[in-house]
Input
Amino acid sequence: MNALVYIAAGAGPHPVVILLHGFPGNERNLDLAQDMRRAGWDVLYFNYRGSWGTPGDFSFAHSIEDTGAAIAYLRQPEVARSLRLDPNRIVLIGHSMGGFMTVEAAAADPAIKAFATISAADMSGRMQAMLAMEKRSDAIAAMAHGLAEEGMAPLAGCTPDGLAKELADHAMSWLFLDKVDALKNRNALILTADDGLTRENNAFAAALRNAGDTHVTTRYFATDHAYSDKRIELSHVVLAWLKGLPK
Output
């Protein structure tokens, strides 16, 4: 996979963030990566299979697998030594579809003790709601149209219709609310904006709290999906949350 690592100054070992981009990934949040590096964190950023020149075919299942592979990569002893990182302190931070990847990967890996989402897209949750209101073919067509509108030029080996069918096939198994039990003992930062995703993210945060999670932090920003005019404030909130995590 195409990837880069921002390595913090000093001997370390440094805690590390895996920074996960959205669909298709026009906003990369690399300003946050630089800020986190200055604050003493290593940051791994990568492009999922089939996206932005990484070889292979893009799919949501492949992206989930790729996120798991990135975690495994950082845990290799020789990698940890080379990058001066602590493999026991890996935090996932994902924007939009990257939030979807964050939730899936954290739920599958109990060793991930903290995760953050920035306007996470519960894409299976949205598909499930569409399937409940209309027949499958219409729901797939509507989802495919929405995906195409996001712009798919940077993605290889996929079509809007194929990706929509994939979401329909996993409408239950990839639900955020289905992951609550696995995540209820984690530190979570859930950020929202004026982009149509606030309701589902608030529901996810509430479900975590109702399940007994006492370490859920939420913050709303009056801005767009890219947090265009709130980048400095966004950075301050993320850095403060990271600083407060248990060592």
